[in-house]
Design goal:
The protein is α/β, with parallel strands linked by helices and 335 residues long. It has helices at residues 3-20, 27-38, 53-64, 80-83, 120-123, 127-132, 167-171, 184-194, 208-219, 225-236, 247-252, 259-275, 283-294, 302-306, 311-321, and strands at 42-46, 68-72, 84-90, 96-102, 109-113, 134-137, 140-143, 149-154, 173-178, 253-255, 299-300. Strand 3 and strand 4 form a beta hairpin.
């Protein structure tokens, strides 16, 4: 095992164990969030209330030793409540001047709790922050702290009092991770931890410099041209109006994944390879991250909604229709 791979594996295991002190089960959810973290992307967690989404975010920020803030999204929340605003300030000599008061977005780990309970206008206040790691107020750009990581939670859209996230907002999330209901054994363990007198404490296990090193290692994982082209064919396969569009896309989708979807597939596959102890990407790594990377980047047609085809089902069908190799199948790409 190379030094970089050992460094990455040890730090990931530390984070998993520390988060596991508080959060019961949910291995796939934790791995999905950690993948976004080390790939320098943001994550959207979707699930019904009470599944520990907020607890996961707070616990992870404590395990990283990073500054953490939470914004509770509500219908009356305004953009200035997120990014900040200029206020009239008076000093001890009575002189008045306008001063910029930073909003809660100026942090390292931001929890946008129940983000789909705010109006699209308010949700859009995060667009510049998530993409460019800065906010612009009255023509002045203000840089955000490094690292900057947004973890948003949302309730399913069929629940009362929610607003759909705009496509531009959704596209800025690296992964959309579904949080399932716990199993019976997990529920028993959750009750044992949460209804007794003992509460586990979380300690920082890696720092910002180590996180930056993990992100460097991710971007240096090798990916051969054939695997890269496969990932791009998967994204093109989601477009109903392009030559590479699959039959499923042509029949059931209004639009396909953006170029950010391409970036997500490649970076997510690189993290997946590292998690499996490899420093090269295989086709199975691309397929492993396709659902969280693409489920929020495709638009279903009326026909798909009428037939109750979920985004996950459509992505799965597209994966079966995209050939693993151009021309003849190369068995070594699946190794």
């Amino acid at each position: 095992m190379s030094r970089d791979l050992q460094f990455f594996t040890e730090r990931m295991e530390r984070l998993r164990m520390e988060v596991g002190k508080v959060l019961v089960g949910q291995k796939n959810v934790i791995d999905g969030v950690l993948t976004c973290l080390v790939a320098d992307g943001h994550v959207l967690l979707e699930g019904v209330p009470g599944l520990g989404k907020t607890l996961l975010v707070r616990t992870l920020s404590e395990a990283l030793g990073l500054h953490y803030r939470r914004i509770q999204f509500t219908p009356d929340l305004m953009p200035a409540d997120i990014v900040g605003t200029h206020i009239l300030d008076e000093d001890e000599h009575g002189r008045r001047a306008m001063r910029f008061q930073q909003g809660p977005v100026f942090t390292q780990v931001l929890l946008a709790d129940e983000i789909n309970r705010a109006t699209p206008k308010t949700q859009s206040a995060l667009l510049e922050a998530m993409q460019e790691r800065q906010v612009t107020i009255t023509g002045t750009r203000h840089g955000l702290p490094k690292p900057f990581f947004v973890m948003a939670t949302q309730n399913p859209l069929e629940m009362e009092g929610t607003y759909p996230l705009p496509e531009a907002q959704l596209d800025r999330f690296f992964f959309k991770v579904h949080v399932p209901f716990p199993s019976l054994d997990d529920l028993v363990e959750i009750m044992a931890r949460t209804t007794g007198n003992v509460r586990p404490s979380v300690q920082p296990v890696i720092d910002a410099d180590e996180l930056a090193e993990m992100r460097r290692i991710v971007r240096e994982v090798a990916i051969v041209p054939e695997v890269m082209r496969y990932a791009m064919r998967v994204v093109l396969g989601t477009h109903p109006d392009l030559p590479g569009g699959t039959p499923t896309a042509q029949q059931y989708l209004r639009y396909g994944a953006s170029p950010r979807g391409c970036q997500t597939l490649v970076l997510g596959a690189r993290v997946q390879a590292l998690l499996e102890g490899r420093q090269h990407v295989a086709i199975k790594d691309v397929r492993a991250v396709a659902l969280p990377a693409l489920r929020h980047r495709i638009g279903r047609s009326f026909e798909a909604e009428a037939e109750d085809l979920t985004p996950d089902a459509l992505v799965q069908k597209i994966l079966t229709e995209v050939p693993e190799a151009e021309g003849r199948v190369q068995k070594e790409l699946r190794a």
